[in-house]
Write a structure and sequence with these properties.
Low-confidence stretches: none
Strand order of the largest sheet: 5-4-1-6-9
Mean pLDDT: 88
Number of strands: 16
Shape: elongated
């Protein structure tokens, strides 16, 4: 490398090629080649057959059928017995040729146009009422234009709780985005089929639910990056006593997070959210028939099941139809418009929740059933005046004598 540089420098200074060759002890032909070259000399090994060459054609065939087949599996299929590292390097070289390119466009989001929705599972188990702890989902909605974040923990990822959480977060946002963008979350729908109640909910909000096709993560990258942000900036060093405690801490933290400058838009979400809201749709005055709702006939076992837990009902409603309605906080049961149960909703699974008043009413009704009272006016005993029989047969005292 040094000789090549020196040859070019001396030639540029006008030193004859023969003198350069004599000075450096090399042939004049070498000097001519160095002056005419465009770059420094380097060793290039001529391509030739290697130990991988006999297997290359079969490997290509396997990768055409299954581009993501692991190299270890390919080695087993073709009978490779050499170095797996060398084989893997060659497989990866061929794999690039078989993969179809998937370009990712840069997306721009207009004010009010869309909000991206996702479920984030914090990597920390939350304590529940029965002493257990579990991982619970957090529903996250991020306005795509302003990057403003609304989020809260919900009990399940079922449709009823997803719609209840969405309605609560949209109320926090203050307006309705024109599109709610989801991936293929089962509680929202799969493919072209929406889960029951989703289309009705979207209609009440006058918005549109858009579910992305598989293998399209870029179209929901705004909210996905927020989820990673939560794990690195919110979760470290925190402890939670309950879901309510998590929501309180998270809500307080989000207030500050929405005041931070987002690098991609070079602005604070809190400063842009007003422009986002101005282009969104107005909130509907009220939404009815939202959440968990069903009707059932109350049996002798005076409990109704919601999700996986049982809640007691006033036993006076046994035998009649009752309507069960629940949101994220309360479970209410009515019979003919009368409230017959009102419980806090429990997030743990498989619980039995009993109101002491219902237990006392059941004990009283059970006692009354087991100790029936005689009808009013019934005879106290079987004894009867014999004169009643004489009169019935037309006899009197004189006839008897």
């Amino acid at each position: 490398m040094e000789d090549w540089a020196l040859i070019r420098r001396l030639s540029a200074e006008g030193v004859p090629k023969a003198r350069i060759a004599a000075r450096l002890g090399i042939s004049r032909t070498t000097v001519v080649k160095a002056v005419a070259s465009d770059g420094p000399p380097r060793y290039e090994r001529k391509a030739g057959p290697t130990s991988f060459t006999p297997f290359e054609e079969r490997v290509r065939e396997l990768l055409v059928e299954t581009p993501d087949m692991p190299a270890t599996v390919v080695a087993e299929r073709v009978g490779w017995t050499g170095s797996i590292r060398w084989f893997r390097d060659n497989v990866n070289r061929l794999r690039v040729e078989q993969r179809r390119p998937d370009p990712a466009d840069r997306l721009s989001w207009s004010p009010g146009d869309a909000a991206q929705c996702d479920l984030w599972f914090p990597p920390s188990k939350i304590p529940l009422e029965n002493g257990t702890s579990t991982l619970l989902p957090v529903l996250v909605i991020t306005a795509a234009h302003s990057r403003f974040i609304c989020a809260r923990m919900i009990p399940t990822r079922k449709t009823e709780d997803l719609l209840l959480g969405t309605w609560e977060l949209v109320q926090q946002l203050g307006r309705v985005p024109r599109r709610l963008i989801w991936d293929n979350e089962a509680g929202i729908g799969r493919g072209n089929r929406r889960a029951q109640g989703v289309d009705e909910f979207a209609g009440m909000l006058a918005t549109r639910v858009v579910q992305l096709k598989p293998r399209d993560p870029e179209s929901k990258g705004v909210v996905e990056r927020r989820n990673g942000f939560f794990e690195t900036s919110f979760m470290p060093g925190r402890r939670f006593a309950s879901p309510a405690d998590f929501n309180a801490q998270f809500s307080h933290w989000l207030t500050g997070a929405n005041q931070r400058i987002v690098r991609t838009i070079k602005a604070k979400p809190a400063d842009l959210v007003d422009a986002d809201r101005a282009a969104m749709l107005p909130l509907p005055p009220v939404i009815t028939q939202l959440g968990w709702r069903c009707q059932t006939r109350l049996g002798r076992d005076y409990y109704v099941r919601l999700d996986t837990s049982d809640y007691s009902v006033d036993p006076t409603a046994i035998g009649g139809m009752v309507a069960v309605a629940a949101d994220l906080e309360r479970v209410r049961v009515t019979a003919n418009g009368r409230l017959v149960a009102n419980h806090d909703r429990r997030w743990a699974r498989g619980l039995t929740i009993t109101d002491p008043a219902h237990l006392a009413t059941a004990a009283r009704l059970r006692y009354d059933y087991q100790h029936p009272r005689p009808p009013a006016g019934a005879d106290e005993g079987l004894a009867r005046d014999l004169a009643d029989y004489d009169r019935a047969f037309g006899l009197d005292q004189a006839g008897l004598r």
